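A common beginner's mistake is to predict each chain separately and then try to dock the pieces by hand. The better habit, illustrated here, is to supply every component at once so that their relative placement is modeled jointly.
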Amino acid sequence: EVQLVESGGGLVQPGRSLRLSCTASGFTFGNYVINWVRQAPGKGLEWVGYIRRKDYGGTAEYAASVKGRFTISRDDSRRIAYLQMNSLKIDDTAVYYCARGLEFSSGWHAYWGQGTLVTVSS
Amino acid sequence: DIQLTQSPSSLSASVGDRVTITCQASQDISNYLNWYQQKPGKAPKLLIVDASNLETGVPSRFSGSGFGTDFSFTISSLQPEDFATYYCQQYDHLPSFGQGTKLEMK
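With all components supplied together, the output reads:
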């Protein structure tokens, strides 16, 4: 069974950093694109970024709203994807989901984690 | 960046009704358009992939169509469990989501 579990959320002050983890099981983790999607309280879904598989460069793409502040990485040996969030703003307050993409593109997201809440507040 | 505009943003309907939601892309995205259902406090659930293909296990009352810039999503006969928020999502280049359509009981 495919499972994704996010962790690392919590309360953080503006300007500080936080790292989220997405731990996967039930599939060959290294073969898939991993996405991060967030949802501010009472708002819609916003794609944050994705990371490609290592044999396709392992590079990441980001939404304009987080580019330069957020970094996605992956550790295929541990089956974990990370979202490093720096210079956090109040507007970054959201539930953060990781979602499995396809093997070669972000594609559609058939599998999602349960989400982890990040609250940016002083 | 590709913008997706969903319409309507909210919709009131009754069990048994047929409802349609539209999603317009700001540029041609071929058929790289998916639809999700989200209930409060839950992760989104994938319903339709590549504009018109029903995800495995999704009831046949859900359907999608469209190509290029104009897409639609239809529930042929609303069931009580279908009241939720629906999102379109494109993946032609950098992914993006529509703003959502909240389907409420009349």
